[in-house]
Amino acid sequence: MSVAAPVELSPGGPRLSRIVAGAWRMDSWGWTPRQRLNWIEQCLELGVTSFDHADIYGGYTVEGLFGEALRLAPQLRERLQLVSKCGIQLVAGARPQHRLKAYDTSYGHIVASVENSLRELRTDRLDLLLIHRPDPLMDADEVARAFDDLRRAGKVLHFGVSNFTPAQFALLASRTLLVTHQVELSPLQMAALHDGTLDQAQQLRCKPMLWSPLAGGRLFTGQDAQAVRVRACLEAIAARWHAPVATVVYAWLLRHPSQPLPIVGSSRADAVRQAVDALDRPMDAPTWHEVWSAAAGREVP
């Protein structure tokens, strides 16, 4: 049986499972705490020990839902890694003081966000904290000071970013140690392959995390020309492989030499299994370029 063995994100960085479970939509699953705990346990059985969160998910509710489940089996905390993100302010009932959607990467906001995440998740530490999106007003020295203080206090063990440009990543990395960059990548969104993001990850030996690897379901239901074209290509490969289309997609992502960690944002145990199964299905370069060409709508130059 395939299992998602842990990997080191970067030299001296944390060890996360190669497949990560995403909790973004947990508030819409309509589950009891026991059902949420069952999902966590099913992921752990597959070797998926890392769970991706953000303070804003579910209008600031998802971390609490996960924490309620974890409270039923607190011993599981030592078997899993908790990732969260901060830096976006949403207008939500849980944050009545927010007047409009905005970014905040100030020292006070980062520290307060972490304290709240620890309370909601019912844990004493985050294994990894990411700045959720680049803030035009980000003061790299101030962010580094917040990271350093949180690290010294043992409240966050490692740090990274999400959705940054390579230049923005380099700026913050010049002030503090970053261990990963979480970016969007799928056969329908390939910008990170060509804008320097994954080149930088390879250069720094800093494995990226990938969000929306199935393009938010558009790979299966999208009716635009690109989605239809890519779906036909993936289905043809899946028929040759005798495997689900999702497994083919994850194999395509895992083939990249930056050694990315895809995030599976589904409540279905079989969806997590299909991602884990891709670890045993290495994709050759011609097949990888077959998918790329379908996505780009042309052959490589």
TrEMBL record:
Residues 18-291 form the NADP-dependent oxidoreductase domain. Pfam families: Aldo_ket_red. It comes from Caldimonas mangrovi. InterPro entries: AKR_Detox_Biosynth, NAD(P)_OxRdtase_dom_sf, NADP_OxRdtase_dom. The lineage of its organism: Bacteria, Pseudomonadati, Pseudomonadota, Betaproteobacteria, Burkholderiales. This is Aldo/keto reductase.
